[in-house]
Design goal:
With about 300 residues, the chain is α/β, with parallel strands linked by helices. The protein is built from eleven helices and eight strands. The chain has one domain: TIM Barrel (Alpha-Beta Barrel), CATH 3.20.20.70. β7, α10 and β8 form a beta-alpha-beta unit. It is globular, with a radius of gyration of 19 Å. The chain starts with 13 loop residues before the first helix and ends in a 23-residue tail after the last helix.
Length: about 300
């Protein structure tokens, strides 16, 4: 703990004081990180095949789908083979909820399987307790495996891997940022996703979380590509496309892409509720008019200035 965080004397809440002090330092670091731009990689869009099927089922979605998810280099479809979308030459990828399943899946899919693998460790049934307790270790193993196989590793560690502080008015992501997990995982990753979907309804919190996590990831690995999660209905509640648009605009200078989620209730997400693809389509239509959000777009300035070199 910083020397600036000295517990209050003769108080009945020393733990609260220390907690708030650490959160204040994290908040200040996030504010300072806001000057750090995204990397010079082209802008990336990711989407699962299930989400894409929900999106393409909507009338009039063809233009948006082709705009954001047909780039051979900067569009990534999650879920293995995508024969239902032969006209979309996007990169293939395969997602795993544990290192054990990733190791087995990579062995079975080589040499013709996807060259991009996603390891999504969370506090859920798909991740074994041992991997939940030591996520950095298993991401290191995953990084080594991916390098041996010549594959790209996408790391998406959930903030629920770290126990939140029991203080109501401190953001739940604070303990995650203070744990050091972001930097530890980013060292092993080629692409790092900030799962910030739960904070979409408050743009200020969403931006603070994304910017601080992106800063930590790049401090640990300057070459890592950082993307942020966007969801149409995190926790089962729909988020208006206008709100998602504000979130996307707020963090665009600091991220290298987005993973767009259109979740629906399943064993992996009992709280997701009914899928809301119409929200995703509305968002994409708004972003189609913003050059900085197109696949492969270059870096933008924090002031919303023009696009830089890709």
């Amino acid at each position: 703990m910083s020397s600036a965080c000295r517990p209050m004397r003769r108080t009945w809440l020393p733990l609260l004081a220390a907690t708030l002090c650490v959160w204040g330092i994290a908040h200040a670091k996030a504010a300072g990180a806001a000057e750090r731009p995204a990397a010079r990689t082209g802008f990336v869009w990711m989407i699962t095949l299930r989400s894409l099927r929900r999106l393409t089922a909507l009338p009039g979605s063809d233009q948006a789908v082709r705009t954001f998810f047909s780039s051979k280099r900067y569009s990534i479809l999650v879920g293995g083979a995508h024969s239902r979308f032969p006209s979309l030459p996007a990169r293939r990828s395969q997602a795993f909820g544990s290192y054990q399943s990733m190791r087995s899946g990579v062995a079975q899919s080589m040499p013709r399987g996807p060259r991009l693998v996603i390891l999504d460790l969370e506090h859920w049934s798909q991740t074994p307790p041992g991997e939940q307790q030591h996520p950095a270790h298993y991401y290191r193993l995953a990084g080594r495996l991916a390098r041996r196989k010549g594959m790209v590793l996408v790391a998406t560690p959930s903030s629920n891997l770290v126990e939140p502080w029991p203080v109501r008015f401190v953001p739940a992501y604070t303990s995650y940022l203070q744990s050091g997990l972001v930097g530890q995982v980013a060292k092993s990753a080629d692409i790092f996703e900030v799962q910030a979907q739960g904070f979409e309804r408050r743009t200020a919190l969403y931006k603070e979380f994304v910017v601080a996590a992106a800063d930590q990831a790049r401090d640990a690995n300057p070459r890592v590509t950082v993307i942020a999660g966007l969801s149409t209905n995190p926790g089962g509640r729909g988020v208006p496309a206008a709100q998602l648009y504000r979130d996307a605009i707020a963090v665009r200078p600091y991220v290298d892409g987005f993973w767009l989620n259109i979740p629906a209730r399943s064993e992996a997400c009992l709280r997701c509720g009914v899928a809301r693809p119409e929200i995703a389509l509305d968002l994409l239509r708004r972003l189609m008019h913003e050059q900085a959000f197109l696949p492969g777009a270059g870096r933008v300035t924090a002031a919303g200035g023009g696009q830089r070199g890709a």
